[in-house]
Amino acid sequence: MILNYKLYGEGAPLIILHGLLGTMDNWGGQIKRLSQHFQVISVDLRNHGRSPHSDEMSYALMAEDIVELIDHLGFSKVSVIGHSMGGKTAMQLALNYPKLVDKLIIVDISPIQYPPHHANVFEGLYAIDLANLASRSDANKQLAQHVDDPGTRAFLLKNLYRTEDNKFAWLMNLDALHNQYNNICAAPDGKPFESEVLFIKGELSDYMLPAHRDAVLKLFPHANYKVVMGSGHNPHAEKPAEFSKLALTYLTRPDI
């Protein structure tokens, strides 16, 4: 499938991959900064945003989607930034197609199988009565019964849109994401990626832990780490200046 994408700026190609229940729009601030140095390709992953829907969801399939996009755009090699689920997709791409990847940044995710931890989110999204929904504020009230954090609710409700008959609907394929959730929690795998990789961790996030070090080095033996202080799971949004400085320092560094 050809994913929904947008191009920004000029220069060497840099693909950005968002996390679960996100869209390319989550990276707007970073795209503005990074596109001053690169041609940024912002992508909606399958079953997200305005990309095609599918009943199937796995990192192998999502990596193939990116390969198809790279071929569609005529690139021979790209740099990639992937966050959370998008980070696992970027890892799988590098493991399966190392010659396609120039520089790789993985944001606040490790190559491990995570325990399920989105039950309240899915319960909340399914609890919203789309057929009778009058406004986004009503959706927020309904979602608040399941999701306490206002920022998380605002993030999730960016997936709401109005149809041609003025009804609310979800951009993402909620059923597929729910049914394929075990595959989303799964770990990427393959032969080790022998080039350098930068892992960027949010200081306050528990998605990347010292216990994951062996799993990281098994697949990415040349991994480097940077920590964004004071940030949680979304350092690109929570500490944008610090994040873009780290990313650009790595991406623009001459190859040794």
Globular, elongated, flat, extended or rod-shaped: what is the shape? globular
The biggest beta sheet is recorded as: 7 strands, mixed
- State the low-pLDDT regions, or none: none
The ordered H/E elements are EEHEHEHEHHHEEHHEHEHH
Please report the total strand number as a whole number. Answer: 9
* Largest sheet strand order: 1-3-2-4-5-8-9
Secondary structure tally, helices? 11
Structure classification: alpha/beta
Specify the helix fraction band: 25-40%
Radius of gyration: 18 Å
Distance linking N and C termini? 36 Å
How large a portion of the residues is in β-strands, by DSSP E? 15-25%
Estimate the mean pLDDT confidence: 96
Description:
The chain has 256 residues and is α/β, with parallel strands linked by helices. 36% of the residues lie in helices and 18% in strands. The protein contains eleven helices and nine strands. It has helices at residues 28-34, 59-73, 85-96, 119-127, 136-143, 150-157, 174-179, 181-185, 213-219, 235-238, 240-251, and strands at residues 5-8, 13-17, 39-43, 78-83, 101-107, 160-162, 168-170, 197-202, 223-228. The strands form two sheets. The protein has a seven-stranded mixed sheet with strand order 1-3-2-4-5-8-9, sandwiched between helices. Strand 2, helix 1 (28-34) and strand 3 (39-43) form a beta-alpha-beta unit. It is globular and about 55 Å long. The model has no long low-confidence stretch (mean pLDDT 96).
